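Dear Dr. V.,

Thank you for agreeing to look over these. As mentioned in my earlier message, I'm a first-year student in the group and I'm still getting used to reading structure tokens, so any feedback on how I've presented them would be very welcome. I ran two proteins. I've put each sequence directly above its structure. The first is here:
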Amino acid sequence: MNTGNTNDVTLCTTNDADTQVRAGGPTAETRAHFRPRADIVETEAAYHVTLDVPGVGEGDVDVTLDGDVLTVEADAREPQFEGRVLARRGYRVGPYRRSFRLGEGLSRDGIDASLAHGVLTVTVPKMPEKRPQKIAVRTS
């Protein structure tokens, strides 16, 4: 839970476009990626990042950690409709990318990712010493 002092226990989004601008401008590759929507939920033990990646299969998603930056890349492929015609598309087809910066209080070990029904959930555990602790009260 948020205890008010989370300066070193944070997970925040990064703006790939800003990073590219500082490095000399966005490239055609960075402009071509879609940025999936994401929710970040904090619990006592971890942060849970939920991203919408409709049309993405298990083999079409990569989650990588480079230093303090966790990056999700996925590729939503054109669906096959065998004998049917697409009347209207409800989601984007193509590459997705979203990055998150990990604070010092988050563990780089034990990051977990699962994909179900077009929703990717990435769990980033907090370091044990940064988690709130319950102190037992003894009676005398």
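The second protein is here, in the same arrangement:
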Amino acid sequence: MASRFWPYVDQHREAFLALWMDEVRHAGISAQHTGVEDTAALVTQILEDTGFSVTKLPTRGYPILLAEAGGPEGTVPTVLIYGHYDVQPADPPDAWSSPPFEPTIRDGRLYGRGAGDNKGQHLAHILGIGALAGGMPRYKYVANRLLTLVQNLLLGHKLSEYHTGYRAWSRSLL
């Protein structure tokens, strides 16, 4: 996976940054009933462009976005990303070094309302899954399942998902 993942990220770095900045520009402030529907539409578009099918679930407040993507049976994990696409008011406005909904890069960091909580993390999760689209190779899945079965029988434990490859990956592991 590493052979696909990091080159994909490097190749799309500028596009990913543009998406992040676009999302920060969307002032979806639920406490003030401002722009949340527009922000939901943007996140829906990002999810769809990344390969997810999106269902908008109505609530008494703002919609929940349920996104699903699949691959060949048994080759992709179930992953839950929980996050919010709205932000808190940017009060007081004079406390900001730059306008809160105009993303600004200073010293290699992106500043803007929601850049860190939660738009940056949320977008990273979505785009990371998109970068790994297609699941693990079938041979690796079968080998990992067989190894798990043998260990379960020999050790008397249920290591069901330990060897499936469905655990978090760090760059050093890849």
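From my reading of the second output: Residues 161-174 have pLDDT under 50 and may be disordered. Helices lie at 2-25, 36-49, 115-131, 138-155. Does that match how you would interpret it?

Kind regards,
E.
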